[in-house]
Amino acid sequence: MRLAAALLFWCAAASAQLPSWSGGPTPALSLSDLDGKQHTLDAYRGKVVLINFWATWCEPCKVEMPSIERLRQSLADRPFAVLAVNLAEPDSRVRRFVQEARLGFPVLMDRDTATARAWKARLLPATYVVGPDGRIRYSYIGELDWSREPVRKQIAELLPR
Questions:
Q1: 3-state SS class at 15
Q2: Beta-sheet strand order (sheet of 126-130)
Q3: How far apart are CA 73 and CA 105, in angstroms?
Q4: What's the whole-model pTM score?
Q5: Are 56 and 89 in contact (CB under 8 A)?
Q6: Distance, CA of 129 to CA of 35 (rounded, Å)
């Protein structure tokens, strides 16, 4: 019985499409990265932006990070960006994870979790795909292989031509 349930779950996850966002307007985002550089969502206008809320204590978060990096690399020549928002962890722990995972995208520090609350990121990982117009188009709660072709294609369709 457990095997059947696991197989059903795996099949559903493997065919997962990104659900369209219906949660209202896009909240503001203005946070510093690990080097102290300020990032605002407005500065990314004209690009598709994947915003991932995560923490090092969250196993599914850590598991999906390499796929986010692969997605970023596959769209490196396009107007696409990734912003990973860490929830209230020490810089040293986050920095160590980023180095070990060899992530090439900015990691922003949500020190008081106010940004996560504004984005309604109650469960981790929580990921939002923002279109070039600055509006959230898709959201996904839980672990996902972001480099899978159907997911990559869905995101690529938002990219300006």
A1: coil
A2: 107-110, 80-87, 48-54, 126-130, 136-141
A3: 10
A4: 0.90
A5: yes
A6: 24
Q: What pLDDT, on the 0 to 100 scale, is given for residue 3? A: 39
Percent of the chain clearing pLDDT 90 (strictly above): 88
Euclidean distance between CA atoms 20 and 129, whole angstroms: 9
> Per residue in 43-93, pLDDT tens?
999 999 999 999 999 999 999 999 999 999 999 999 999 999 999 999 999
Q: Which two tokens stand for residue 82?
A: 């990734």
**CA–CA separation, 94 and 36 (whole Å):** 14
CA distance 89 to 111: 7
For residue 32, pLDDT over 60 is answered with: yes
E strand segments, the chain: 30-32, 38-40, 48-54, 80-87, 107-110, 126-130, 136-141
